[in-house]
Design brief:
- It is a single chain.
- The protein has 253 residues and is an alpha/beta fold.
- It has a single domain, classed as Rossmann fold.
- The protein contains nine helices and ten strands.
- The chain has a six-stranded mixed sheet with strand order 6-7-8-3-9-10, sandwiched between helices. A four-stranded antiparallel sheet has the order 2-1-4-5, covered by helices on one side.
- Strand 4 and strand 5 form a beta hairpin.
- Helix 1 packs across helix 7 and helix 8 runs parallel beside helix 9.
- The longest helix has 18 residues.
- Bound molecules: adenosine-5'-triphosphate and magnesium ion (MG).
- Magnesium ion (MG) binds next to helix 2.
C-alpha cells in the first residue's frame, strides 16, 4: 500500500462519517471536578458545533478548560451535565460504550508523546491495533480484527509523516519532533474520523513545532480529516481555519 492509498483511506473514513452529522455538537456542556468538598467548574455550559473537515484550534490560558473539553470530545471522560454529540452519536447516553467508539473513531496526540520506550517506531504505531489482536487470540471474534493493520501500513504511515527511514528506531533514538510524528502516525493507524491533539507542539522548539503543526494541517487539507488542536501557543492561532477561545470554562467570542 502506498502513502496516497493511506491518505485516501483517511478520506474515505471521513466521507463515511460526514453525511449529515456534525463532528461535534455540544449543548450546555458542563464538567465539574470534585476534590473532597471543593467543586471546580472546568467547563461552564458551553455550546459548540464543529463540522466535519474543520481544522479547529481550542485556545486559552492555562486552566481555561482546553484539556477538559478535548477529553470529553475524545470520549475519555463524561460530562457532568449537558448534551454532547460526537460523529452523530449522543455520547451522553449511559448505554453508549465510549471505549469502543473511541477506539474506532478517534485518534489522540498528546504533548508528552506517550511512546513506549522499549518499542520501535513501527511497533509504537501498531500499538493501538493490539487490542484487536488480543481479541483474535481469545477467539471471541470481532469486526475490528478484520481491519487490524499490517506492518506495511505502519511503514506507509511512517512514510506519510516523513519517517520512513526511522522504522526500527526506538524513542530514545529519535528527536522530539520525530517522536511526535510517530505519535501522529500511531493516532492514524485505525483510520480515525476525528484527530485530537492536546498541546502537540508544547515540548518542541519553534522550528520543530512548525513542522509538526504543518503535518496536522496537511492531514486536514489533503485528507479532509477533522482535526481539533488545543494550544496556548499564540503563534499558531492564525493558522487554524477556526479558533474556539476558552476563558475560565466558557467560550468567549
Ligand atoms: N482531574 C481534575 N480534578 C480536579 N480539577 C481538575 C482536574 N483536571 C483539571 N482540573 C481543573 O480544571 C480546570 C481546567 O483544567 P484543564 O486541564 O482543562 O485546563 P487547560 O486549559 O487544559 O490548561 P493547560 O493550558 O495548563 O493545559 C483547572 O482549574 C484545573 O485545575
Ligand atoms: Mg491542558
Amino acid at each position: 500500500m502506498r502513502s496516497d492509498e493511506v491518505r485516501s483511506q483517511i478520506t474515505e473514513a471521513r466521507s463515511q462519517n460526514c453525511g449529515q452529522d456534525p463532528a461535534v455538537q455540544a449543548r450546555s456542556l458542563t464538567r465539574t471536578y470534585r476534590r473532597g468538598a471543593e467543586k471546580i467548574k472546568a467547563l461552564k455550559g458551553i455550546d459548540l458545533d464543529i463540522k466535519c473537515g474543520e481544522f479547529v484550534g481550542v485556545v486559552g490560558h492555562s486552566g481555561a478548560g482546553k484539556t477538559t473539553l478535548l477529553n470529553l470530545i475524545g470520549l475519555m471522560d463524561r460530562p457532568t451535565e449537558g448534551k454532547l454529540g460526537v460523529l452523530g452519536t449522543d455520547v451522553t447516553r449511559r448505554a453508549v460504550r465510549l471505549d469502543a467508539l473511541r477506539r474506532k473513531n478517534i485518534g489522540f496526540v498528546f504533548q508528552e508523546f506517550y511512546l513506549m520506550p522499549t518499542l520501535t517506531a513501527t511497533e509504537n504505531v501498531l500499538l493501538p491495533t493490539m487490542w484487536g489482536k488480543a481479541r483474535d487470540m481469545t477467539g471471541s471474534g470481532s469486526a475490528i480484527v478484520d481491519r487490524v493493520p499490517s506492518r506495511d501500513r505502519a511503514k506507509k504511515l511512517l512514510d506519510l509523516v516523513g519517517l520512513g527511514h526511522r522504522m526500527t528506531h526506538k524513542p530514545s533514538e529519535l528527536s522530539g519532533g520525530e517522536m511526535q510524528r510517530v505519535a501522529v502516525a500511531r493516532a492514524l493507524v485505525n483510520s480515525p474520523r476525528l484527530l485530537l491533539a492536546d498541546e502537540p507542539t508544547g515540548n518542541l522548539d519553534t522550528a520543530t513545532r512548525d513542522g509538526v503543526f504543518s503535518l496536522l494541517l496537511a492531514l486536514n487539507r489533503d485528507s479532509g480529516l477533522t482535526v481539533i488542536v488545543a494550544t496556548h501557543d499564540l503563534g499558531l492561532e492564525s493558522r487554524f481555519t477556526r479558533v474556539v477561545r476558552l476563558e475560565d470554562g466558557a467560550i468567549v467570542k
